[in-house]
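job 3f2a | input accepted
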Amino acid sequence: MSRWRRFPSTSHTTVDCIACGETVARSDAREYDRHGDRWNREDKRFEYLCKPCHDDLCHFPRDGLETTLIEAGAGEVDRDAFLRSFCHLDGREAGTASDE
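job 3f2a | predicted structure (100 res):
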């Protein structure tokens, strides 16, 4: 008789939400894959969001977002400079902004 393979329980494991910093039970969290491909699990380490933060996310495709954030200086420049750069880059890639 074949038996189903049981995976280790995650109910006793805690994780930190990358959005709000709250520590929650793994069973009360959602996996977040910064590359947008959570189904390809090979050689990945997932980050986690608590359910309320996950529900607040925009679930639209984010192709190119990571590259645009890096080009705009996310975490490296002040907020105003980042927002100006991000809006310019995002508009450029969408074909809505013209170069000055």
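job 3f2a | The radius of gyration is 18 Å.
job 3f2a | closed
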